[in-house]
Amino acid sequence: MMSSAATANTRADYPSPRRAWGVTLLLTVVFVFSFVDRQILNLLVGPIQQDLDLSDTQVSLLQGLGFVATYVLLSIPIGRLVDTRRRTSIIACGVAFWSFATAACGMARGFTGLFVARAGVGVGEATLTPAAWSLLADYFPPDRRSLPFSVFLMGPYLGVGIAMIAGGLVMDGLAGTGPIEFPIVGMLAPWQATFFAVAAPGVILTALLMLVPEPSRKGLSAGAVPEAASFPDILAWVGAHHRVYVALLVGVPCIVLVLYGLQAWVPTYLLRVHGMSLGEAGTQYGSIALIAGSLGVLSGPFAGRYLERLGYRDYQLRVCVLVLALIGPGLAALAVAPTAPMALACIALVSYLVPLPLALIATALQNATPNQMRGVLVGAYVVTTNVIGLALGPSLVALATDYLFGDPAAVGKSLAVVGVAVSVAGLFLVGRALAPYRALLDSQSTVS
């Protein structure tokens, strides 16, 4: 099996901090807009249901399965390409494709058309995480990766916030205007026009990405040609450290399930339970997602360093354990919140906790995995977080609302039931990986 680093890399082997941070900021902006394109559907549930006559379960399939099916099927093959091909070009092609597919969502005339377009968004976005994580690992030395990963992982929260706030304002501004005529495509409802608006920045981002220089791959012998590890070698590595990778690939996605459940159903919860308008729900939840989510992901490295100073070498997974233990009580409080301000406080608490360990987990996966395996195993992480998180999160909440409670107004209780159950499962899986993770770190004297 290929070693994690054939030769030690010094900081001088890495691109300049100025260039590295410039690329980090561009990748973060791309990640932001990927989530704007992905999440705008959640704000438009009401008008889409009204125009296309869809049930909550059908909407959850658009939010989850329609996107995830292609996203997860392509993540590992694309991860394989990431290990050997130009990563900046892979991302640029992905941005162009998902932007076109987002615009296609705005032309849908029924469930099937919208489902196919959402699958197209999944195809494009499958390129981003494996390629971006691999790039960041080659732009920054191991001991300086946590902060850039944290900045990059602000993308989902900034994206959700922008999607909710801007989308809500656009929908409020277009309320009562009726269909809008667009060149070539004809008359579009306001919700359809919104999809076109959020797809437009993809043109500029694609052009900028083509200008990003590809860094040299670290952890290879001098002059070595990048060669992906064989699948038997990858399976042997994962098998030798199975508890660690079960925690990373199954336990951590339990947190992501809570995240996507919140993003999918909190706007609808605020409408149904607390009587907010579409614009109010979008701006209130969008502000929480943007502020609390961003603070959470930025706080992760500081919480990790604090635990590291206390002597916990496994601090990356330990922060995850602490978060899983706190999510359940926050969601339980949401289920019984009697007023909108109390509900928003619970949402803010959980929105802060959920992203807290994610940058640490990203660096743990990069640091624990040999360079020639990173694309594939990050692709595997993308698969499991999206199958467990995005495919199951919205749908489990919808199924609980439709069939367990049988009451549309019980969506808050559904969020609590699902969230508490998966938090307990994640707590068990990540908790049992602490000792093996420490042993793996001890065996990795040099990680690149």
Brief write-up:
GO terms for molecular function: transmembrane transporter activity. With 448 residues, the chain is mostly helical.
What does this structure look like?
- α1 packs parallel to α8, α5 runs antiparallel to α11 and α7 packs across α18.
- The protein has one domain: MFS general substrate transporter like domains (Growth Hormone, Chain: A, Up-down Bundle).
- The two termini are 16 Å apart.
- The chain is 76% helix and 1% strand.
- It has 448 residues and is mainly alpha-helical.
- It is globular and about 60 Å long.
- It contains 20 helices and two strands.
- A two-stranded antiparallel sheet has the order 1-2.
Please state the average pLDDT score.
84
Count all strands and give the number. Answer: 2
Largest sheet: 2 strands, antiparallel
CATH topology: Growth Hormone, Chain: A
* CATH homologous superfamily heading: MFS general substrate transporter like domains
Radius of gyration: 21 Å
Assigned CATH architecture: Up-down Bundle
* CATH class membership: Mainly Alpha
State the shape: globular
Which class do the helix and strand fractions yield? mainly alpha
Strand content: under 5%
Q: Unreliable runs, pLDDT <50, ≥5 residues? A: 1-9, 221-225
Count of distinct structural domains: 1
Q: Distance N terminus to C terminus? A: 16 Å
Instruction: Give me the number of helical elements.
Output: 20
Q: Order of helices and strands, N to C?
A: HHHHHHHHHEEHHHHHHHHHHH
Going across the major beta sheet, what is the strand order?
A: 1-2
Residues in helices, as a percent range? over 70%
